[in-house]
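tool=predict chain=A
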Amino acid sequence: MLMKKRHTILVMGSMGLLAAFQGGAAKELIRNGGFEWTEGKVYTFDQLKLAQGWSNATIGISEVFSPEATVKTVGIPTNEYGTMKPLEGEKYAGFFAWKDDERKSWSSDPEEPFKPGWNSYSEYLQSELVEPLVEGRTYELSFHVALSGNSDRAVSGIGAYLAPNRLDQPHRRFLREAPQVFQDSIIDARSEWREVHGTFKADGGERFILIGVYPFVGFETKRMIEGLDNKYAYYYIDKISLKEVKEQK
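tool=predict ok
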C-alpha cells in the first residue's frame, strides 16, 4: 500500500526547523516503513526477513504481523501477544524489547521459583536507508510503538541507532550503541500507539537504522501486574519515517 505524500510544513518551534523543502516534501529515507511489502505470505513467528528491506541485527528474531496469519501466531488484529490494529496500512512488525534474565526453576524449593536464564534477551530491527546521511545535516526520525496487551512488563530506552555499517551480532543481548533518537521514559500504554520522535545532526555516512532498546541512555522496567508474570515486554511497531529537515533562516 503506497503512503500518501504530505505537503504540509511542520515547524519545530524551539529548533527553528522546517520539514519540507522548496518545491515539495522531503525525501523519505526509510524503506518499507510500514512493513506493507513482503516477499511471500506471512503466516508465523520470526519472519521479519520477509518484509522487504528489513532484517534482524542479532540472532534475536522479530515478527511481521498480517491479517493473513492466525490468532495463534501473528494475526491482525488478534495474535499471540494481544490485539492491535495497524496504525496505517494492513501490517506492522513487533519485537521483544526485553525478556527477563530468569526462567522457571523446577526445584522443589518454594523460595527460589526462578533461576538465571538467557541473559536479558532483546531484539533489534534493521534496515538499509535509501541513501546515506550527510555530515552536518539535520534529520527528523519518528516511529510508533505499542506495548502488546499480553506483556506483563514495560520498559524505557526504546530508540533508534543510525549506523555506518550493517550490524550482525552473534548474540541476543542488548546492543551497547548510543541511539540518536530514543524515549527515556517507560512506554506502558498497552495496545495504544505511542510516537517516538526526535531530530539529530548526522555525523555523515550513516546507512542503516536499528530499532530496539538501548540501555546506554538508561533502562528501567515496570511490572504491569502483581505477583508472578510472563517476564517480557513485547512492542508492536509501525509507521517509521526518516527525512532531512532544513534550518529556518
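The chain is about 0% helix and 35% strand. Residues 1-23 have pLDDT under 50 and may be disordered.
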